[in-house]
Design goal:
The chain is α/β, with parallel strands linked by helices. Helices cover 41% and strands 14% of the residues. It contains eight helices and seven strands; from the N terminus they run βαβαβαβααβαβααβ. It is globular. Bound molecules: nicotinamide-adenine-dinucleotide (NAD). Residues 13-14, 16-20, 38-39, 43, 62-65, 90-94, 96-97, 122, 149, 151-152, 204, 206-207 line the site of nicotinamide-adenine-dinucleotide.
């Protein structure tokens, strides 16, 4: 353990997922107070069980796709004496999540408007709501930072062929929402600059989570490092963005993708 984050109170959405739960563990290990939020369910329960004995761990149920819940969340945590100075827009509807829920991946021509809007609401409108609430309740009161989570598929086209014959795909609303998230970063960076708030984007590459060997081999050929990432390799960069060492960075995107975007 070191104390690189001991001056941070970190608020994170979607904290029970593959990456979120890794971030939480690493942040606690570096001395941060963590305000973990997620939908109710097995992910949230597992996270709470893991950290039940840690006084720096705090959990709140939060569905980011419900505007009223987001509008109240910082007042709720502030009412409990917690003052987040780092906020992570990490929750998202992901391909792995849809596959886990047994949901189909329709062809582009068959995507329904409500399916498109559901992804956009969670992956893009909700980060806007979180940022707007940060503006109302936090920005200007004390120094703070926002980290938006995009993806290697935000600013790079998807390689559709690598999904042939596999049970999941990259889906269009995901890529579009993730590109939009970085647009939010760019817009806010200048808007908040004179109020002591920074905002950056992290774009994780493909994180290994028990993927089919065929997929691992296909995507590995598109990555300079030749393989998928481990969650801790993404967390290393995320922890830096949360720390005071990133204090002079704003309006930037960090790609942590083994070189996928670097060819
Ligand atoms: N894992 C990867 O390969 C990868 C790659 C690039 C980007 N990312 C991004 O990293 C972030 C974390 O991804 P992950 O791999 O941990 O995904 P995951 O599917 O394991 O976790 C996503 C989390 O978001 C939560 N969530 C979904 N809808 C929500 C809602 N309405 N309200 C609150 N929480 C909600 C889920 O409950 C879950 O805990 C996401 O933004 C994702 O797009 C992941």
């Amino acid at each position: 353990m070191n104390n690189q984050l001991s001056d941070k109170t970190i608020f994170i959405t979607g904290s029970g997922g593959v990456l979120g739960s890794t971030y939480v563990r690493r942040m606690l290990d570096q001395g941060a107070a963590v305000i973990a939020t997620d939908l109710p369910g097995h992910r949230a329960e597992a996270l709470q069980a893991e950290h039940a004995d840690n006084p720096n761990f705090h959990f709140y149920e939060l569905d980011v796709s419900v505007e009223d819940e987001v509008t109240q969340i910082f007042k709720r945590v502030q009412g409990d004496g917690l003052n987040p100075n780092v906020v992570l827009n990490n929750a998202a509807i992901t391909g792995e999540m849809l596959m886990g829920a047994g949901q189909p991946f329709p062809d582009f021509a068959d995507i329904k408007t409500d399916e498109w809007e559901r992804t956009m609401r969670t992956n893009l409108t909700a980060p806007f709501w979180i940022a707007r609430q940060m503006d109302r309740d936090i920005v200007g009161k004390y120094p703070c930072t926002l980290v938006n989570v995009a993806s290697m598929y935000a600013l790079n086209g998807a390689h559709h062929k690598i999904y042939d014959g596999l049970p999941f795909k990259n889906f269009s609303a995901y890529s579009v929402s993730k590109a939009g998230v970085h647009g939010l970063t760019l817009w806010l960076a200048g808007y908040w600059a004179d109020r002591g708030a920074t905002v950056n984007t992290i774009s994780p590459g493909a994180v290994f989570n028990g993927h089919d060997p065929v997929f691992q081999e296909r995507i590995g050929e598109l990555i300079m490092a030749g393989r998928m990432a481990q969650p801790d390799e993404i967390a290393d960069a995320m922890l830096f963005l949360c720390s005071s060492q990133a204090g002079y960075m704003t309006g930037q995107m960090i790609n942590v993708d083994g070189g996928f975007s670097g060819w």
